[in-house]
Design brief:
Length: 174
């Protein structure tokens, strides 16, 4: 016999119906579950992860900034320096090969080149050369992030507010 919806639900109604037998209901349920599982497998994506360490070429184990530039290099800032990954190997930048700093806090890119916030100041890497712009005295100690403003000006978020950087000069905004 048929059950009322209020007593045991729609599934009991379908299973006990004269038009649909119990075996059909079981096959329908199993087939539906298999379709859902296989659809999830088809649409899922598989990502390969590789963990890089100091033995692979990183200057320090703890990473503080990562940026992929327009060419495709991945720049990695650490507490112990800066490295650039080309997909095969790391190139480490340190004072011995021209990088003026050790700790790196943020990395970005502008029309001037790769922007690196370091413990020594703002460093711009362009045409295989590093140029250092020391932070103004008694202004801020650290750049946290970079942004480009509406008029393409470089805006620095620092530990002491917002600054604009233009033609080698830091100007406090807020």
């Amino acid at each position: 016999g048929r059950a009322f919806l209020g007593e045991t639900g729609i599934f009991s109604l379908l299973a006990n119906s004269h038009l649909i037998g119990r075996s059909f209901y079981a096959r329908f349920l199993i087939t539906s579950l298999l379709c859902l599982v296989s659809a999830a497998a088809v649409f899922s994506q598989h990502y390969n992860f590789r963990h890089y360490t100091v033995s692979d070429g990183l200057p320090f184990a703890r990473t503080s900034a990562i940026y992929q530039d327009l060419v495709g290099y991945i720049w990695i800032g650490t507490e112990g320096g800066l490295s650039r990954y080309d997909g095969k190997e790391f190139e480490v930048f340190e004072p011995a090969n021209g990088f003026p700093g050790s700790a790196v806090y943020a990395i970005s890119e502008s029309a001037e080149g790769i922007l690196i916030a370091s413990d020594s100041g703002l460093v711009i890497y362009s045409y295989a050369k590093f140029e250092l712009y020391k932070y103004p005295k008694q202004s801020f100690n650290r750049i946290i992030s970079f942004s480009i403003g509406c008029a393409n000006e470089l805006i620095l978020t620092t530990d002491a507010g917002l600054y604009e950087f233009k033609k080698g000069v830091f100007r406090k905004i807020v």
